[in-house]
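User: Modeling request: complex.
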Amino acid sequence: MTQLWAVQYVMSQASLPSANTSILVQFDALKDFIARALQANGLSPEHANKVASLMAQADLQGSDGHGVIRLPQYVKRIRAGGINVNPHIKVVQDKAAMAVVDGDNGMGHLVVSHAVELAIKKAADAGVAWVGTRNSNHAGPASLYARMPIAHDMIGLYFAVGNANHLPPWGGMDMLLSTNPIAAGIPAGSEPVIVLDMATTVAAYGKVKAKAKRGETMPEGWMIDRQGRPLTDPNRADEGFLLPIGGHKGYGLALIVGLLAGTLQGASMGKEVVDFNKDHVTPTNTGQAILVIDLKAFGEPGFFKGAVDQLVKDLRASERLPGVERVWLPGEQSHAKRLAYAQQGIPLAPVLVADLNALATELNIAALTI
Amino acid sequence: MTQLWAVQYVMSQASLPSANTSILVQFDALKDFIARALQANGLSPEHANKVASLMAQADLQGSDGHGVIRLPQYVKRIRAGGINVNPHIKVVQDKAAMAVVDGDNGMGHLVVSHAVELAIKKAADAGVAWVGTRNSNHAGPASLYARMPIAHDMIGLYFAVGNANHLPPWGGMDMLLSTNPIAAGIPAGSEPVIVLDMATTVAAYGKVKAKAKRGETMPEGWMIDRQGRPLTDPNRADEGFLLPIGGHKGYGLALIVGLLAGTLQGASMGKEVVDFNKDHVTPTNTGQAILVIDLKAFGEPGFFKGAVDQLVKDLRASERLPGVERVWLPGEQSHAKRLAYAQQGIPLAPVLVADLNALATELNIAALTI
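Assistant: Request completed. Predicted assembly structure:
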């Protein structure tokens, strides 16, 4: 009999890049390089710095599929006219506890951080606030935005429509849904904050691409082909679909997240979603939404944070299944990376650094400082 | 190779009770019987009718694990002093877009419907509102509450802490988490409304108990034993744990749902959760939370509902995997049951009807009208 959980357990472990094969880069050097590249493509210094800081934070916390690795693609899209480098981001719907932000097809990082900042302000007054976006774009890892309210003693819940459809409805084959992620940021006291960031599919599509790049096969359960058979060769990914978590449940979650993050704000969902890997010109009309909950409205924040600390301690102290070294909390591994990479530098693959050097030459900007 | 999705597909199909082996009962007859039983145990006519209507609605939509089947257990708890039959349900925290409702250990159905009604009122003003509960109790299927806002052109998102811990943290063995469900109710135009109601575990614990009752084995993937091996004998359920959907992802979801529905409102979570199957006396301090989003704040509700209709049509029209008869939307099967059972009657298992007749005798009330 297969140890079902064991396969999944291994999947949940972080794959720390080996220091031997990686090039270490300081956070500020990475941020400054990204900002130079964006400014060279027409973003204002203020906008370029804001996007660069968020992209470098993605790498800092180990969300390396959503960090600087996306820079060449973003630049390609900007140069093709698919992104507005000088957007007028504005509120188009507004009540005490909600707003809709129209991103004017600007960089998603700018649009979403604008939305989160507004939601934090509104939640401070109303107790809770929902701010959604339309005409936004890919904004990097969901966790970046879900964790922003934490510094204000607030909870963040984040939903987004993914930028390419790889998921059919349950039992179907038409790829009408994306990996639509859910993220949550929860304040804690002395323990690291809890940050969940998950695609509603078993594997995010970026992980499939990474497997192909490394010449590895995928575990059964990530994808199926058009006969319903497990698909394990990532080079054949075009012949199949991602599987949702929990079968029909993950399909339902991906659908609800898409309705909340997309349809509700008048953003793309279903057939309207633009595959931004293949089409660099058509505005994506990406939608995201953040719910911010102010702990202060519910009582003394210290009480909540103390309860979270106790729960974290109880979960971590749980007796473990055979072969399990420790029980992790969501976001604990990212938290450890933030601390480690801030000290030692962020590990980048040599092939990525070569790509960035080529980009620097192309853009005629100073190369990444190693 | 196993057709992974096929196993899960079968799990997602409704098990319609066979008409041959079931006794058909009219909705009003069922509701009136439940109300009689609750009144005989000290609930006011108003409270008894409200709880009875919600419990009978659970059976009407096929959520039969959460309907009248729970009546004997509720009565047992009331008689043991574990439920306050005359609760003073009151708001203890309040801002424009949020409230915390203290249920005074009343029946959960009363506490949660109070919370949802308040959230609907607040959302009409603020656009969005969050109302959570503490000192509440088991309230039946999550979907009942998530769908309440729909009639007001509002979206409902519902979270609850389950009433017994059967889920350890990922890689662990201490059962510190429950099946903490998520439910969502989404308005539609001419299509049936979308209603998702899912435990964050692969199978809800009630389904394990049902398998044991029917002498069936569980599919691999529902539970594991303390060695991490698949557990398929439901009579050995005490020797293992439920598995979360998507492995570590479902663990993360169950944790976040518990923090939002429980900890945030000062309700039980983690070690504090009382197993209401084993302990009929200790107040459970159950927590639930509803988020209500008013479509009218986002624009013309007809626009949203039209987009939902189109999406539903696209999903339903998807090309299907071999052997799949149709693609379902979340809540579509429950919707069909609501219509069918309202006409033909609600099918109850003969053994359940016998239990209810015994209860009628014990309480000296008129039996269920068949």
